[in-house]
Hints:
Layout: E1 5-9, H1 13-25, E2 29-33, H2 36-46, E3 50-54, H3 62-71, E4 80-84, H4 89-97, E5 102-105, H5 110-129, E6 138-143, H6 151-166, E7 170-174, H7 182-186, H8 194-198, H9 207-211, E8 215-218, E9 221-224, H10 236-251, E10 255-261, H11 266-274, E11 277-282, H12 286-298, E12 309-314, E13 331-333, H13 341-358
Parallel strand pairs: 1-2, 1-3, 3-4, 4-5, 6-10, 6-11, 7-9, 7-10, 11-12, 12-13
Antiparallel strand pairs: 8-9
Helix pairs in contact: 2-3, 6-13, 10-11
Amino acid sequence: MSGKKILIIDDEFPMRYLIEHQLKREGFHVTLAKDGPDGITAVTQHQPDLVVLDVMMPGMDGFEVCQQIKTTPETSQIPVIFLTASEAKEYKTRAFAVGADDYLTKPFLAEELLAHISAVLKRTERVNTGVISPSSGRVVSIFSPKGGVGTTTLAIQLSEAIIMHENRPVVLIDLDLPVGGIAQMLSLHTHRNILDLLKASTEHFSVPYIRQFTQRHRADLLVVPAPGSFVGTGSKDMIRKLQILLEKLVEGGYQVLLDLGSHLNEITRTAMRQSDMVFVVTSGQSVANKLCEAFLRDAPELGLEARRLLPVVNETHGRIQEVDLTRLPVARIPHTSERSRTRLWLKEQGIRKLVSIVK
């Protein structure tokens, strides 16, 4: 992707300088604009391959700039990545409403921005050339017999990594019912949630209809949240509908990720039976390992194929030297609270290992 033209529109000089420096090191041609009007002029004159756009700028904010780019025929196909210091869900909703292709919050790592730029450029090239991957989708579940080991965080990270590294559309569904945690972590609303969708008639279960119950977190990441309140988890009819829903999404070519939390019930068992693989998560600590072992041992009696169940160590509570499991974990996600570059790199490698297994 080096050689591509990137336009940075940001009213803060230090931010413009830092992004410019990093992108030039990677071989990009960089143009700078100090505010909204200057950015509009630069878009027209330079026709960049991608725009990195700040949200909060004096006078003409990023929303207005993006809307003008996307509604002008000559520039409407130029992808836009929003940068903002605000994590408010209203900002994210409004950004995608005016045509944003991706959304990133400050502060961020330079490598993170580069990954997002690369993913958006690849996706744009795929759309422009009409080259769409013919491979069908699949269903991947993330479950832990013990709560508090980070299934939700891991589900979100894996969803984003699939988009970054595999350039495939993902639907992330929160089945950690009834409350869930994905909407809270991503600042999404729960007005239309998975239970609302499962109450609908299956004759409506087309991909366009299902998408009405999703929210965009990234350009190719759609999220179906849990209700976020203590309500019932549904009926046997909903279990049948869940099967049909997953089949429709797979036929539509989506990678479907299911956060099952730590509750073993008929819905989560149905989800696991429908899954191509289930990542069974442990923190590596003794109690979590024992519960993981017990689940893997009893899985056949639950109607689950052992070969589809893949143990993963997610060090949510600190570093673990030795992990006492009968089956070798397929990946290990190290503890990274210290934010050291080495630990962050190891964590990235752990997530990428999961991506390589999913594809």
